[in-house]
UniProtKB/TrEMBL annotation:
InterPro entries: FAM173A/B, SAM-dependent_MTases_sf. This is Uncharacterized protein. The chain crosses the membrane at residues 58-79. Keywords: Membrane, Methyltransferase, S-adenosyl-L-methionine, Transferase, Transmembrane, Transmembrane helix. Residues 1-27 are annotated as: Disordered. The keyword Methyltransferase applies. Residues 1-18 have a biased composition (Polar residues). It comes from the Eukaryota. One of its GO terms (molecular function) is protein-lysine N-methyltransferase activity. It comes from Cylindrotheca closterium. One of its GO terms (biological process) is regulation of mitochondrial ATP synthesis coupled proton transport. The keyword Methyltransferase applies.
Length: 240
């Protein structure tokens, strides 16, 4: 015998009571509720187990990606107590500052201390600099490296390098231009690093935060420099 198909319509619509007879609102309400409960039970039992497994796998993957992403962005700050989080300098401001320098000198070695998404390295390589980005945060370094590999021209790639490293370990002795978007507590140690490693004539681009300069005996370990550009929060200091 063929199985009988069940009629999914609510009971009150299948009522055997004569049409036209007015039924109490309560009856309709409770029949409707019972029908909705029935429907919900059917839906739950009809969910194919493999579909449920697929959904939980996708949910797990999304959750995992978020956890790894957040952990990846935070990890260097947790482990190294670096006080310099990722914030981007607009590419147009970097380009304008570098174009200003290119009017005066041929592009040489450009170093971005904390290269983030790699935008400064891209702008510098495009203008003819040999550009090196130093980035401690693995996620930022990986993202900028993928960006470089996929979207930069062969020439821009050949003139650029992105290193996964600590900026305080990179020697600036060969740099002609150094970029930094630091934060207040880091500006003094950065100024000391520049003072002890950079040759005279090196240009230091600093976005937003000013670098402290040497002006007396007490500050003689800081960089000796003159400001040669100050526009839209971008400063360029030339080392003496
Ligand atoms: C404010 S962002 C600047 C990014 C990029 N230079 C720009 O201007 O758009 C600072 C970057 O420095 C990185 N950073 C922080 N401490 C660092 C360290 N000790 N060595 C290398 N990179 C570091 C951060 O992960 C972040 O990507």
């Amino acid at each position: 015998m063929a199985p009988q198909e069940s009629d999914p319509s609510p009971n009150f619509l299948k009522s055997s009571e004569p049409t036209g007879k007015l039924r109490k609102e309560d009856d309709i309400d409770s029949s409707l509720n019972a029908w909705l409960e029935d429907l919900e039970k059917q839906n739950t039992s009809q969910q194919h187990p493999s579909k449920l497994a697929d959904r939980s796998r996708i949910g797990g993957a999304i959750f995992g990606t978020i956890v790894i992403g957040v952990f990846g962005l935070k990890a260097p700050f947790v482990f190294t107590k670096s006080r310099l989080p990722y914030m981007a300098t607009p590419g147009t401001k970097i380009r304008k500052a570098l174009q200003h320098l290119c009017k005066e000198k041929k592009p040489g070695l450009f170093v971005d201390l904390g290269s983030g998404d790699g935008e400064a390295i891209y702008q510098a390589a495009k203008l003819g600099y040999n550009a090196v980005g130093i980035e401690l945060n693995f996620t930022m370094w990986a993202m900028s490296s993928i960006r470089r590999r996929l979207f930069w021209s062969k020439e821009e790639r050949s003139r650029s390098k992105l290193l996964w490293s600590d900026l305080f370990e990179y020697d600036l002795k060969d740099a002609n231009a150094v970029m930094i978007f630091g934060v207040t507590p880091l500006m003094k140690p950065l100024s000391q690093k520049i003072s002890s490693q950079c040759k005279s004539g090196t240009d230091i681009l600093s976005y937003r935060f000013a670098l402290p300069l040497a002006h007396d005996k007490k500050t003689q370990d800081l960089m000796k420099a003159a400001m040669v550009y100050d526009h839209e929060e971008m400063r360029i200091y030339r080392c003496k």
